[in-house]
Amino acid sequence: MSCASRPEAWGIVVALAAVVCPPQAARAQGWTETQAWAVGTASRPAAVLAGVGVGWRDRGRTRLGGVFAAGVLETGDPAGRLEFTYHFLLDPGRTRGAAVYGGGGLALASGERADLAARVLITVGADVAPAAPRGWFVELGLGGGARLAAGFRWRTRSAPGR
Predict the structure, then answer these.
(1) Which structural domain range is residue 64 located in?
(2) Residue 112 falls within a domain, yes or no?
(3) 162 within some domain
(4) Looking at CB atoms within 10 Å, which of 55, 84, 87, 120 has the fewest?
(5) How far does Cα 10 stand from its chain's mean position?
(6) How far apart are CA 60 and CA 92, in angstroms?
(7) Three-state secondary structure along the chain?
(8) Considering its fold, how many domains does the chain have in total?
(9) Side-chain half-sphere CA neighbours of 100 within 13 A
(10) Per-residue pLDDT at 62 exceeds 60
(11) Higher confidence at residue 12 or residue 49?
């Protein structure tokens, strides 16, 4: 089956391009983030995974990101998860305390049959000190089952002309 006959494949390509090649303005004036995270999904079958990710924040309240995780299903089979997300931060300037964000995106999960299943992802989370160079985060969400994620983000300011 060709890619042209699978419309969801084009959505995946567009989401991947937006994460891998963010707009020049977003790179030049915001933040670049890297993260280590763990995620558990309450789906059939349930999964526990850990991985890494990267994100770009503009000067305002938005973050585009992509994360990858590998782990195991409750059946003992290997599992993988790839997520492309958009977050809207309610208080991105906090240097102390937690700041809430919400968002959505696309989750691609491999399971027992080793096929890739695309799911719409909706998240609500909290960043600790989103304007600091590093901080913890926790997220609740839905996307191929209930989802709980937690991790640590490292942030670098992207100044114009750098």
Answers:
(1) 3-157
(2) yes
(3) no
(4) 120
(5) 19
(6) 8
(7) CCHHHCHHHHHHHHHHHHHHCCCHHHHHHCEEEEEEEEEEEECCCCEEEEEEEEEEECCCCEEEEEEEEEEEECCCCEEEEEEEEEEEECCCCCCCCEEEEEEEEEEEEECCCCCEEEEEEEEEEEEECCCCCEEEEEEEEECCCEEEEEEEEEEEECCCCC
(8) 1
(9) 3
(10) yes
(11) 49
76: number of Cβ within 10 Å: 7
Query: What are the tokens at 33?
Result: 């983030």
pLDDT tens for 70-120 read 999 999 999 999 999 999 999 999 999 999 999 999 999 887 666 778 899
The CATH number of whichever domain residue 141 belongs to comes to 2.40.160.20
**What's the length of the chain?**
162
